[in-house]
Amino acid sequence: MCAKVILKHKLEIRDKIIAAALISFSRKGFDKTRMDDIALESNVSKGTL
After folding, report:
1. Sign of dihedral through CA atoms 15, 20, 23, 28?
2. What's in the keyword line of the UniProt record (predicted)?
């Protein structure tokens, strides 16, 4: 696999996580958002976070 493809995939996952975190923060607030919420919203594992 090409390094550019790997980098592109990583950036896509990063963007999904950030978007999911913003959604979770707006729904529950920063203090009440859990890693589980972000993982579920972004459809990635907690380990990936």
Report:
1. negative
2. DNA-binding
Domain membership of residue 48 (yes or no) is no
Statement: the pTM of the whole predicted model exceeds 0.70: yes
- 49 found inside a domain: no
Cα gap 6→11, rounded to integer Å: 9
Tens digits of residue pLDDT in 14-39: 999 999 999 999 999 999 999 999 99
24: in domain: yes
Q: Identify the helix (H) or strand (E) that includes residue 11.
A: helix 3-28
- Give the span between the Cα atoms of 12 and 39, in whole angstroms: 15
